[in-house]
Structures are given as C-alpha cells and as structure tokens.
C-alpha cells in the first residue's frame, strides 16, 4: 500500500484537469483513493509515502496499434511506398525471419521502448501472439494481443482456422494473467475472406473482444476493391456486420463523410497512425472531420518498420498538429483532447474503459510520472496540459507502474527485465542485424 | 589538438556516407584532417585521443529559423490560429514583457535546449539581438543574429532606422567573436515598408549578409496583399530585388510553381517550419515541389510559442514525413537528403557553406556525437542514415563541440554555462512564469 505524492495529478475524465495537493493511494493492483495528503495519510497511516515532488502523475499512455515484433526491422525499409515496402522488403524479410524467436526478441525491444517512454499498454497484431504476450509479461507491459489472422499460409499457420486456433490456445494459456488481454485481429480486407471475417465477428461477440483491423489505409486499397468486387472495403464491413462498437479501424486514411458518420453512430474507433501514413505516402487521415462527427479517434504508432519510433508523445503531438494543419482550424484536437486520446479514449477503444486510462478509485494502477523539473526543454510550464501534449517527450518519463507494480524507476526497467533487455539488445546487434542484412542482399 | 575516434563518421557532402575506421583531427577551432586512426596518430603523435566507441560523429545541426527569446512563452498560447495567436496573445505578452532581460533569459533557455539536442547554430530573429548574441556566447552556441526590423515602434526601437542602427551597433560590438554571425531580418511583408526593404537589401549586399524574412506564411497574408496592393508579397519581393541567393524565405506555405521556380533559379532558400505551420493551421508548405524544382529547402523550428519544442530531430523527421504524405510519393525527401538539409544545405542558406555543415579539413569544428549504443529505441541499426533521420532524438546527443570547444560532454553543458543554466531555469520558474501569468489575466 503506497501513497503517491506528486506535484500534480492529471485527471483525464470527464474533463482534463491539473490537480494540486492531490495524492493517490494504490494497493495491490489498484487505485483505492484519490485525495489530499492529509486525507490519505489519516485514512491509511500504514501506507508508504512515495514523494514525487518534481513529477506529474498521469495514467499510462495506450498505444492502439503496434506490430511489436517489427522493432527488429526498424530502418530495414525506408523511403518506399506501402506496396513496395510490403512486397519487396517486409514480406520477404518476414518470410525468412519471422519465427517465434524473432517475435519474442522484437517484442521485448518494443515493449521496453514503450514502457520506458510511458506507454503502459499496447494493442498488437502479429504472428505468434503468444511470444508477444510472453515478451510483454517479461518486460512488464500490459498487452492487448491479437488473435491475428491472414488468409494465406505463413510459417506461423497454414490457413485461417489454424491462425484462430493458435490464437485461442495462447489466450487460454495466459487466461490468469491480469495484464494480458485479447482482440481478434484480421489483417486487412485485401488479405482476409468474407468467411473468415464473419467467423471472427462471431468470435468477437462470443468472447467479448475488440476487432482490430487495418482498413482504408491507401487509396488503391479502396479503388482496387471497388473495381474487383464493386464495393468499398468499408461497405463490405457494413455488410458483414463489422461496423460496431468493438471495431478499431486502423489507419482509415480514406474514409468518406458517410463512413465517418456511420462509425460515430456505431461507436467504432479510428486508430490514427500519422507517422506511418505519411512515411508510406498513404495520405492524411480525415481526423478533424472524424472528431467533428463524434468518432472516437485514438493514436497508434504502427510498427517500427514504418514509423520508425514507438513514441506515443511524438505520435500524438503529430496527430494533433496534422489535424489542425490539414483542416485549417488551429482549435482542432486541442491539448486536453489529446491527453484523453492517449488515455480514456484509447481505453474505450479497447473495451478497457472501466479498468485503465483514469486516475480514479477502482481503476488499475497503470501510472506514469513525467519529470517537470529544471530542464531547458521543459520550462516554462505556463500550462501543464499543453506541456504534456506539445512538449512532452519519452525522455521525461521517470517512473512507470503497470497493474500496481513499479516496472520503471528513475528511467530504468526493474526486476528481471533489467537483465533481459541488455541481453536482447546485445543479441540484436550480434545476431539480428546480420540476419536481416543477409536477407536484404 | 585532439583526435576524435568515433565508431562512425557521417559525411554530408557531396554525398551522405557512413564512414568506418575514420578519425577526425581538430586543432583550435578547426578540423585539420580526416583519416584512419593510423594515419592521424602517425601524423600527429602529440594529439590527445578521444575515444567515442559508442557514438556516431556528425556536423552539428543548423536551425534556420528561431525566435530564441520566445522560449519564455512556450505553452502560453496554444490551439489558436496565427492571427489570434499573434494579436490576442503574443503581441500583448511581448508588449508587456519583451525587454532585454526577457530576451537574454529566453535565449539562454533556447540556446541550451538546442545545444543539448545537437543544434550548434541557430538563425534568430527577435528584438534586442545583442541579448540573444550574449546568451548564445554564454551558453556556447553559434548564432546568426538578425538585424531585426519591424515598421512600428516597440520598446526596443521607435522606427526602422533605429532598429537597423541598434542591430549594426550590436554587430560592431561582437565583431571579433568567431561564433557570432549576422543577417538582416525584416519581420514580414505585412509589417515592413518598401522603403525599409530596399534599405535592407542594400545593406545585405554591402555587408554580405543573408536576408531572413517570413514570407507567404498564411493564405490571408497573400490574399490581403493582393486585395490591398494588387500584388502578392512574393511579387513585391521580386520588384524590390529581394529574390536572390541571400534570401531565406521562412515558411513559404503558399508559394506557386512559378515562385518556386523563381527561387530555385535565384538560389534562394526555403526555410520549412512544419510544426509551427501545422499548429497555427497555416497549412502545408509545398516542399516536395520545392525540392523537385531545385530549391534549397532547409528546416527551422520557429519559436517555442508556436512549436513548442526546439528539437531539430523531430522537426526534420516531420518535414520529411509530411513531404512524402502530402505529395503521395514516399521517396521524397529521403533520409540522406534530410541529413544534408540539417547540415550542408542549412549552411548554404546562411552563407556559411565554407565554414560549417561538413566534416572536412578546413571546416570549423562544430560537431556532435550521437549515442548509437544499447537502447531499445535505437536498435537495430540496419542503416545509420535512416536511424539518424527517422529515429534520431535529442536525448541521444552526447557531446557537442562549437568552434572547436567542447560545450556539451555526456549530455551536460560545460564551463560557465553549467552554472548559468540552472540559475535561469530557477528564475524562469520563480519570476517569468508569474509575469506571463499576470499579463495573461
């Protein structure tokens, strides 16, 4: 039982507020009470005081779209359009290299990068999700793992039913882990059949899982579908009953006003991945329109092969700036809304809105502190919400708790992860860089 | 006399190359020789070896547009369009607060933020340039100070001739400082008269100075000029003889194809400030077209009140990603070109191409090291140029030399700056935050 005593507490719901003289009592995995120092020390005299005089305390950030394993491919394919990137570089590399070992090692790097930067939860889609889950557990992050499905065979699975079966087995294996959650994750409309989508929609309903899928990432994805099948992928999703509150539309670069209205009405979420969309020249997602339409718009980094960072501070700032610049309205996606996109809104997208994303009694203690002390890139702080949104940086994150356990202290991973990470980093230099280079030749 | 022995040296001209087994001999203010360890230790046995086994050595980054003093206004005006931002927030704040003390303290914070992040030179425009120069000297950065001119009176000066006179006096005062350079810096077409522009064009010619001016930042700047005076500001600049190789067009969000061709032919530079343009909803500069037209396109952060960071890594990455995303061509502004935009191209824009921006004999030793060791946000490094361009971060900068003097060592300012910075940071918390708040009310 601990009383966290930061300089400020960031409230994220129902409005974003900077609270003064506010402490947070955590016990086991949960936030028990939020109150003044006097209230909490009086009510819980046996609790340990954790003094955080130079820090703001806020909920951990939530990354709504990752391919964690792809950290091993960071920088292996740059300055290429999506089609070339995928077909001439990424798929051949994955075909050669993406086995369970690759996924575990890459996911360790990704989870560590994210945790050290204040991202406590990531929503992942990749082969061998069991390995990603084990990496998240070993590093200390919360994960929403994808029961990932693609129509064609890979070394991971031969056909859709096997992908699903393997995902469900992994889900069973980790069912007692409180930091492991699941989604169904069909890859994309152009790689998954109607039959498989229908099956996954049913599965999501039965198991109460989010549906995590790339959709309308590029103009050619949409136009190819129209010319081949006479319908836009979004229309196909409507026909298949996939446009509902479980759905996370990843990318959604090319969505019509009608489609945005439809998403808003259905309660679907748009996962905006601006760096990846820009870097692969997919375009600019209509986030200003989506926000105006009432869509739940959240942020993801995508994988390190197309970003090339898993830095939600930079990604969220970019999302907000792009929404303003592309709409011509500087008031769009303001700082306080971005704080919500990173936390409560992201939790809602993942169906975890009653568990993470807020500092309130009963919520899980997924918390971070941001140093707001004497550094020239920080000061002055006229407005802490603005500071976090527009000048926030991964390097400012000091401490991280996931499910009540402190996993980062003074910018260092704690526990077994502190030994694991250097091992995987050395192996990355020694082994993975060479393997990737060989395939590249 | 020192031999710097990094793991890699980044060559920036004529092509970007990652050099192995390459050391750099610096003596006094200059790079004397680049060669193998064996060559240099044999030729200069008396030189000290500086082992940098986990670092890449590259030229310091060059920030082509700043208002350093405005670091004190970071976060004081967010989520506002340019007009409101300027007229309801920034000008009233500046009117009340922007004296010499404000400029010095703000510029100390800005120069420190930039130096610690690997930016060794900044091209500044602000009132009291003498104070900015003194701050740069005290912190250890190279500065191109603006002889800043605006038509209307401020507490700094009463009318254009006085702005110019004060700027020239400051230039005289610091004429023996090798890290202080000058530009003429008329604020913008909408705040400077033809007569003043003509005077400054002559002055720039006589003194061989760059011309640093905001131009075509917003659509309304252009349309207002057309409706009031019947010509676009760019056309006015043509008429006044300002479109030449000395000119840095800052922002240039709204430039026609003809204007870009004209800039390319004249050898003018475009200073792209993407964060500021997006945040103030000014729009997206046509950088892909500008690059294709042969314009020298470089990057600036603008001031901290509209960015809200002075981080050239993030700004350059954003510039490259935006060029790809807005043009639909993922090959535009590739990683190697960005390295040049930060260094050789920026030096050229400032007329310093024979002095900074390259690691080559005879160039001034403005150098930085980037840690490329075991951190999860860094590895793997399949391609060091890509790593620097797309995953580079201020936090990775370890050491900085300006004019041969080591001003940052192990991420800390050296010498008197190590005392000065904490003083100014404390004063910022204690004094400036309160003063800004008072005006804000």
TrEMBL record, chains A, B:
Gene3D superfamilies attached to this UniProt entry: Metal-dependent hydrolases, Urease, subunit C, domain 1
The Amidohydrolase-related domain, residue ranges: 57-407
InterPro entries: Amidohydro-rel, Metal-dep_hydrolase_composite, Metal_Hydrolase, MQNX/HUTI_composite_N, MTA/SAH_deaminase
Record's keyword terms, sorted: Hydrolase, Metal-binding, Zinc
Pfam annotation, one family: HUTI_composite_bact
Domain spans labelled Aminodeoxyfutalosine deaminase/Imidazolonepropionase-like composite: 23-47
Top-rank taxon, per record: Bacteria
Family stated for the protein in its record: Belongs to the metallo-dependent hydrolases superfamily. ATZ/TRZ family.
The protein, known as: Amidohydrolase family protein
């Amino acid at each position: 039982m601990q009383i966290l005593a930061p300089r400020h507490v960031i409230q994220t719901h129902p409005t974003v507020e900077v609270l003064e003289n506010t402490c947070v009592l955590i016990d086991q995995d949960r936030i028990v009470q939020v109150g003044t120092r006097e209230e909490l020390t009086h009510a819980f005299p046996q609790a340990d005081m954790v003094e955080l005089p130079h820090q703001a305390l806020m909920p951990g950030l939530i990354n709504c779209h990752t391919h964690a394993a792809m950290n091993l491919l960071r920088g292996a394919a740059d300055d290429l359009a999506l089609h070339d990137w995928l077909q001439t570089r990424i798929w051949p590399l994955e075909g050669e290299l993406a086995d369970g070992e690759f996924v575990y090692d890459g996911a360790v790097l990704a989870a560590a990068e994210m945790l050290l930067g204040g991202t406590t939860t990531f929503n992942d889609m990749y082969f061998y999700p069991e390995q990603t889950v084990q990496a998240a557990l070993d590093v200390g992050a919360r994960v929403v793992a994808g029961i990932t499905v693609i129509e064609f065979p890979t070394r991971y699975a031969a056909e859709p039913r096997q992908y699903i079966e393997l995902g469900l087995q992994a889900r069973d294996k980790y069912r007692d882990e409180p930091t492991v959650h699941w989604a169904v994750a069909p890859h994309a409309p152009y790689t998954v059949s109607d039959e498989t989508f229908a099956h996954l929609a049913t599965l999501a309903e039965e198991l109460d899982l989010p549906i995590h899928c790339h959709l309308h990432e590029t103009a050619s994805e949409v136009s190819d579908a129209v010319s081949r099948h006479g319908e836009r992928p979004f229309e196909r999703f409507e026909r298949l009953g996939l446009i509902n509150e479980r759905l996370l539309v990843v990318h959604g670069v090319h969505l019509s006003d009608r489609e945005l209205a439809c998403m808003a009405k259905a309660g679907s979420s748009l996962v905006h991945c601006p760096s990846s969309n820009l870097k692969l020249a997919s375009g600019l997602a209509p986030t200003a329109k989506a926000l105006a339409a009432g869509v739940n718009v959240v942020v993801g980094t995508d994988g390190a092969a197309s970003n090339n960072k898993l830095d939600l501070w930079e990604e969220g700032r970019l999302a907000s700036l792009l929404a303003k610049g592309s709409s011509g309205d500087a008031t769009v996606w303001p700082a306080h809304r971005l704080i919500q996109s990173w936390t409560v809104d992201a939790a809602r997208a993942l169906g975890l809105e009653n568990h993470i994303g807020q500092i309130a009694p009963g919520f899980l203690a997924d918390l971070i502190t941001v140093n707001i002390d004497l550094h020239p890139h920080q000061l002055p702080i006229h407005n802490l919400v603005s500071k976090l949104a527009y000048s926030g940086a991964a390097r400012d994150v000091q401490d991280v708790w996931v499910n009540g356990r402190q996993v980062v202290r003074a910018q260092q991973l704690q526990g077994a992860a502190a030994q694991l990470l250097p091992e995987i980093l050395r192996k990355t230099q020694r082994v993975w860089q060479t393997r990737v280079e060989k395939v590249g030749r």
